[in-house]
Amino acid sequence: MGQQKTGKELWVPLHDDMRGELDTWADSPYVQTPKGTPYTAERFRAAWTRLMNETPADRIRQEGLTFRRLRASSCEKLYEVGCSDNEISAITGMSPAMIRRYLRFADQKRLAKSAQRRLERHANAEKL
Length: 128
Known about the structure:
This protein is an all-alpha fold. The chain contains seven helices and no strands. Helix 4 packs antiparallel against helix 5 (85-92). It is extended, with a radius of gyration of 19 Å. 4% of the residues are buried.
């Protein structure tokens, strides 16, 4: 697979869940328009926006997933499960500087969640 922006070639193994899903597909694994033609990036973005505006996509919005945030979300998820910057780079093809940019708030989020859990445990202990 090559990155559109840089042309950098990447080898990325399929996640077991993705492999299982692709095995069930009868046709092409590529996302296609209702007419069966491949989406361009612009047409896919327009279709995504239309889907978000015309359907009850609350869960997607609540998760903070947006078309523009998918790269950052991917970095954050990989970081949350313990991947190093080099591992994240190997999957995303991004530079270490770009990864750090996307992850600049990940530590803050993790620490804020940890602090909130401590506060809740303390409050619950006081009730006893």
